[in-house]
Amino acid sequence: MLRGLYAAGSGMIAQQRRQEMLTNNLSNVNTPGFKADQASLRTFPNMLINALGTDHQQAFGTNRVGELATGVYMQEQTPNFRQGDMQETGNSTDIALLQGLVPQDDDTGQDALLVYEILNNDGEIRYTRNGNFTIDGQGFLTNSQGHYILGVDGDPINVQNENIRVEANGQIFSNANELLGQINVAVVADPSQLVKEGNGFLRYDGENDVITAVDNAAVTYQLQQGFIERSTVDTAQTMTEMMNTLRTFEANQKVLQAYDQSLERAVNNVGRLG
């Protein structure tokens, strides 16, 4: 009976974590460049049950009863890195990244991901798909939290003011047609090695080097000024999954309550007989 308690309890924990993931997805439905997470649920190893002290072995030549599931857990949550829809804003500092031809990973067959390079508060390189940029007081191109966007030379880009023109290859020109810099677009060969850190930041934990897409014959892309990439969260689908998760949680909860009531009656009855 205790095994049943563990199985129902693990199911409740797994569904709670899945619900938290879906809630976070829904809260970022309007976050530019946000990639919705997907959950992978796995079962714990099954136990092989044998019968002891019965006539089962004599009748059938074996004492094997069967397998017993021992519970479920949420193994991982993986972002859906597909291209989001484009939304026009008309803002000169909003720059959407449209991914074209990219190489595939030999092991997984997954397409590489194109991302912007950005500096976090510790001066470390992070990556993002959020092209909702702005300009700080010193004239540098930054994200909405004030972190520098890096150019092809690895340095922050000083664009002076918002009167800029951004070409499809990321080159930035002033109104006087002066070249101010070029936004770097990085190629992450295995997107599964990217870890979300919040604020749209992605940390790369892979072993292979992250290369640039600029002047790379194996990669095609386009930067579109005045647009942002929308989140990949599907509101209707997410709401449906949240309802299903809640129902599954409640079903496990009822099983857990039934086991609890059975244990309570067993303890009380045994106590009276003693």
TrEMBL record:
Transmembrane segments: none annotated. Keywords: Bacterial flagellum, Cell projection, Cilium, Flagellum. One of its GO terms (cellular component) is bacterial-type flagellum basal body. Belongs to the flagella basal body rod proteins family. Residues 224-268 form the Flagellar basal-body/hook protein C-terminal domain. The keyword S-adenosyl-L-methionine does not apply. Residues 117-172 form the Flagellar hook protein FlgE/F/G-like D1 domain. This is Flagellar hook-basal body protein. Residues 5-35 form the Flagellar basal body rod protein N-terminal domain. One of its GO terms (biological process) is bacterial-type flagellum-dependent swarming motility. It is found in: Bacterial flagellum basal body. PROSITE patterns: FLAGELLA_BB_ROD (PS00588). It comes from the Bacteria. Its main location: other.
